Amino acid sequence: MKILLACLTLLVPFAALAAGDAEADHGTTFMWEWLNLILLVGVLFFLTRKPVLAYLGDRRSDIKSNLDGAEQLLNDAQTRLQEWQAKIDGMDAEVADIRRVTQAAAEQERERIVADAHVVADRIQRTAVSAVERETRRARVALREEASELAVELAAGLLKNGVTEQDRDRLVDEFVERLESENAGGSV
To answer: Which residues in the chain belong to E strands, given as ranges?
Structure first.
């Protein structure tokens, strides 16, 4: 503070000298004006040096902390990006695994369905073959019965028309002889 008062005391005579002498040399006036300016700047510098330096130091620390924070955020963002990229890469592999498992399951299901279809087709074929065989047997039996009925009717018709009284007697005699010979051969 003492220095400030001393500087102000020095300025007052210079200011009076510069303003009071109109006839003085213009160069001397110019020199005194410059000297006043330098002294003013020096006093201002002396008085504002600490607050300005403190402000600039604070501003520098704020900028440095902001830069450090931005750098930390950038590092965090890059770390998260790498994590997400790893997850995306893992998802590609997981999707490929799911696709492979799904295709394998679909192939197994297709094979099972085809095998079941073969089993059902074989069963249907066996059932159809046995049904055809049954119907063939039934048709043969029916055909035999019908043929035998026709043969009996035809034989009956032929016997009625072609067998005389003598033929009937002869057939009865032969039948009786055959029975007697069979009874005689069975009792011995």
So the answer is: none
Exposure string over 102-137, b if 16+ CB within 10 A, otherwise e: eeeeeeeeeeeeeeeeeeeeeeeeeeeeeeeeeeee
Angle at 144 between CA 140 and CA 147, to 5 degrees: 135
Q: Is 45 a residue whose pLDDT tops 60?
A: yes
Largest distance between two CA atoms of the chain = 201
Q: Give the model's confidence band at 2: pLDDT under 50 very low, under 70 low, under 90 confident, else very high.
A: low
Question: Could you tell me the two tokens for 10?
Answer: 């020095």
Angle between helices 2-20 and 26-162 (to 10 degrees): 120
Indicate the pTM of the whole model: 0.36
Residue pair 39/10 in contact (Cβ under 8 Å)? The answer is yes
Q: What span, in angstroms and rounded, lies between the C-alpha atoms of 88 and 69?
A: 28
Distance, CA of 16 to CA of 38 (rounded, Å): 17
Using CA atoms, how far apart are residues 19 and 68, in angstroms rounded to an integer? 55
